[in-house]
Automatic annotation (TrEMBL):
One Pfam family matching this protein: FtsX
Tagged with keyword Transmembrane helix: yes
Xref: InterPro entries: ABC3_permease_C (IPR003838), MacB_PCD (IPR025857), Macrolide_Exporter_MacB (IPR050250)
CC annotations in GO: plasma membrane
Organism: Dyadobacter soli
Protein name: Putative ABC transport system permease protein
Domain ABC3 transporter permease C-terminal: 283-400, 673-784
Length: 793
């Protein structure tokens, strides 16, 4: 029986080649896109799940509550997890990561800078799962040991064994390579290139005042998480109240499951995924399959008159309704299977391109995973049944007597087809509007005034505490070049000023201890970065006392302190000891800098205190637009003359800016691509429906032309029904799109307003696409010779 169903289904496919091609093409595009989006979603949901104990690992994050604000940090104090392990038996182990950032290494004559080097506890490999190529889990038990990733080890040592080799930093500190691990998978909430034994450093591991360690706990299977979190207030009272209570600061913590960090964690200075995009892309995949299924339903019901005699004859010959339903479902499943096979080939071919666009590293092996096989089968069943269900029950319900008498007239399908077309274009219009607003927001962030000039500014990081006196010589040499406008130093790149420090600040109620972001700058900094003073003066090279007596603040700090006249206000550069002895130096506000963004636009502008220091760790060089290559070569030459044993590495400030929005740029490209393909699928169905409608009305068109009807009137006649359907989609799509994007925009501290013109332009574009889709068939029918359509009458 099944063989007979398949044979009949194949014959019908071949018989109606044009409509079969439209259905297969639409389903192929829908299934291909759905599978690619499924791979994206699965990858997003797989973050950190490769660790054997992932379900029992938690990260601790800190909530620092000041009287007027709450700071949320992913870092904690060093002794926190050690104390928790001592106090709670169900805490099996812990691991702490201290970020060293970018480090310079030497190995013989080879010198390299490496990003993302962390100092960690030796227990890190007992908590997390990393595959060792050389060495084992005891690799960091000894001081002075370092574990490298495969990529870094090969960079230093090529194919030679790295175990036992020694690396040196510029300050002559030596680290022995005690292990090499596979590169950290991309589906990790953070990655690293090297791990140094934490006991290699003499740090205050018992201090509760500083937040600079990322802390992780491994809990036992029967751990009571509520009991652990209930004990956090007691930790504050026991260890921290003596430090923070007098400042009005309260500390508490939150436990984050490791597997939820990537999609659910939104903390200061952290770049993660967003569960909203997972929901969005899942919905897009579903809607693409749904629109492709709607195409099949539309065309199948539209062709009901063609299949009516077939159904009537088969019923007269004894076919039951159930057998007819199975026959039509077999046809739809066969089309879906053909589309699936083509889609699998396309997915394999497009995977490298998709990885590049989406910023993923999805391997071909994932196409053979049980998950992917199951989703393929689910697509066949879902799409085959959804697309074939209504036509199957609709066509099998025809009465054989009226069909064979010639009195049959299809009923009920017209309204349903119109509803499906409205649904298709509502979904397409929603996606078009949403994509447009996403790009408007990205463009807004890309072009918003950051409060400083990021164009043509080179950033060079000092390494290992370069001598300050040499900086003055370097600066003088650089300024001899007419293409170099100015040179300045700061303690951190302008695009990534992080961390907070307690200052004692003059308030309306006296001196008060409060947390502010600090940064150190020199007297050339404001000019180099194009920052503006709104009050007071800049630091002066002619006033060495500015290093202790003066500070600059930003507008946000002035507003936080509610200062009407900020110039001259006192700020003590630190906290006053409890015994009152040896207080920190007292500086006065010398000037107020117009607010500038210290991080990306995902973070609000925070109150900032700028301290005067010369020869800081980051150099900013402002150059002219002409002769850029020659200017960089000149800077390199002067750097090598000043620091002959140091590597010269630089980056442009605007590159840091672009990196901050890279992930959203990629998601925007995905949205744009799949929105366009969704509209294409809808248009394929509309084209097929327009073709069929035109064929059904060819004699009516011939009569109209014979009676004097113009080609324009015929085109208008055939287009107006489809135009009406698209217009019906507008009041459905616009509120849905507005609600969805308004909610999405709420996650941005700085956002563009949703312009009414986006909605108008999207509706006009959708209408134009509809007209372009149907106009070919309309013109073809309007220009045809009416004699050919009427000669059989």
């Amino acid at each position: 029986m099944l063989k007979n169903y398949l044979k009949l289904a194949f014959r019908n496919l071949v018989k109606d080649k044009f409509y079969s091609l439209i259905n297969i093409l639409g389903l192929t595009i829908g299934v291909t896109c759905g599978m690619l989006l499924f791979l994206y979603v699965v990858d997003e949901l797989s973050y950190d799940r490769y660790h054997d104990k992932a379900s029992r690992i938690y990260r601790i994050v800190s909530y620092i509550r000041e009287p007027d604000k709450v700071n949320k940090w992913v870092s904690t104090q060093p002794p926190l997890v050690k104390t928790l392990k001592q106090d709670y038996p169900f805490v099996e182990n812990y691991a702490r990561f201290f970020p060293n950032g970018r480090m310079a290494f030497r190995q013989g004559e080879r010198r390299f800078y490496e990003e993302d080097i962390f100092s960690v506890d030796s227990t890190v490999f007992d908590v997390f799962t990393y595959k060792f190529i050389e060495g084992n889990g005891t690799a960091l038990h000894q001081p002075g040991s370092i574990v490298l990733t495969k990529r870094v080890a090969e960079r230093f040592f090529g194919k030679s064994p790295a175990l036992g080799q020694v690396l040196q930093t510029n300050d002559s500190t030596s680290y022995k390579v005690t292990g090499v691990i596979e590169d950290v998978p991309k589906n990790s909430h953070f990655t690293f290139n090297g791990l140094i034994s934490l006991n290699s450093f003499q740090r205050n591991a018992d201090g509760w005042g500083g937040f600079y360690i990322n802390s992780y706990l491994l809990l036992s299977k029967n751990a009571d998480l509520n009991k652990l979190e209930a004990g956090f207030p007691g930790l504050y009272e026991k260890y921290m109240s003596g430090i923070f209570k007098r400042m009005g600061i309260h500390i508490t913590y939150q436990m984050q499951p490791l597997t939820r960090i990537h999609l659910h964690s939104k903390f200061d200075g952290e770049s993660n995924g967003d569960i909203g995009y997972v929901y969005t892309f899942s919905a897009v995949a579903f809607f693409m399959l749904l629109i492709a299924s709607i195409n099949y339903m539309n065309l199948a019901t539209a062709q009901s008159a063609r299949r009516a005699k077939e159904v009537g004859l088969r019923k007269v010959m004894g076919s039951l309704k159930g057998a007819l339903v199975r026959q039509f479902l077999t046809e739809s499943i066969l089309i879906t299977l053909i589309s699936l096979v083509i889609s699998l080939i396309l997915v394999a071919l497009l995977l490298p391109f998709f990885n590049n666009v989406a910023g993923k590293a999805i391997s071909y092996m994932q196409l053979l995973s049980p998950q992917f096989v199951l989703i393929g089968l689910a697509v066949v069943v879902f799409t085959g049944l959804v697309s074939g269900s209504y036509p199957a029950f609709y066509l099998s319900s025809f009465e054989p007597a009226s069909v064979l008498k010639g009195t049959f007239k299809a009923r009920g399908g017209g309204f349903f087809r119109k509803a499906l077309v409205v649904t298709q274009f509502s979904i397409s219009l929603i996606m078009l509007i949403c994509t447009w607003i996403v790009y408007q927001q990205l463009n807004y962030m890309r072009n918003k005034d950051m409060g400083y000039d990021r164009e043509q500014v080179l950033t060079i990081d000092y390494q290992d505490g370069q001598p300050k006196d040499k900086y003055n010589a370097l600066r003088k040499a650089l300024l001899d070049n007419p293409n170099i406008q100015s040179v300045a130093t700061a303690s951190a790149p302008v695009s990534n000023i992080g961390g907070r420090v307690i200052f004692t600040v003059e308030s309306n109620a006296g001196m008060k201890e409060m947390a502010f972001k600090p940064t150190a700058i020199d007297h050339d900094y404001l000019n180099t970065m194009g920052m503006k003073l709104i009050a007071g003066r800049n630091f002066s090279n002619d006033l060495p006392a500015d290093t202790a007596n003066s500070v600059l603040i930003n507008e946000a700090a002035m507003k936080r302190m509610n200062w009407k006249e900020p110039i001259g206000k006192k700020i003590m550069l630190g906290t006053v000891p409890a015994d009152g002895k040896n207080p920190p130096p007292t500086a006065h506000v010398a000037g107020v800098v117009r607010d500038f963004h210290q991080q990306s636009l995902y973070n609000p502008i925070e109150p900032l205190i700028m301290i005067y220091r010369r020869g800081n760790g980051v150099i900013h060089v402002k150059i002219k637009t002409q002769n850029t290559a020659e200017t960089i070569a000149f800077i390199n030459q002067k750097w090598q003359q000043t620091y002959p044993d140091k590597l010269f590495e630089y980056r442009f400030l605007d590159q840091d800016f672009e990196t901050a929005y890279h992930a959203d740029e990629l998601r925007g490209k995905i949205c744009t691509t799949f929105s366009a393909l969704t509209i294409l699928i809808a248009c394929l169905g509309l084209f097929g429906l327009a073709t069929f409608t035109t064929e059904q009305r060819v004699k009516e068109i011939g009569v109209r032309k014979v009676l004097g009807g113009s080609a324009a009137s015929v085109v208008l006649l055939l287009s107006k029904d489809f135009t009406r359907l698209v217009l019906f989609s507008f009041p459905i799509a616009i509120p849905v799109a507005w609600f969805a994007m308004d909610k999405w925009l709420q996650s941005f501290p700085y956002k563009a307003n949703m312009s009414v013109w986006i909605f108008i332009a999207s509706c006009v574009a959708t209408l134009l696409i509809c007209w372009l889709t149907v106009i070919y068939q309309s013109l073809k029918a309007a220009l045809a010779n009416p004699v050919k359509s009427l000669r059989s009458e």
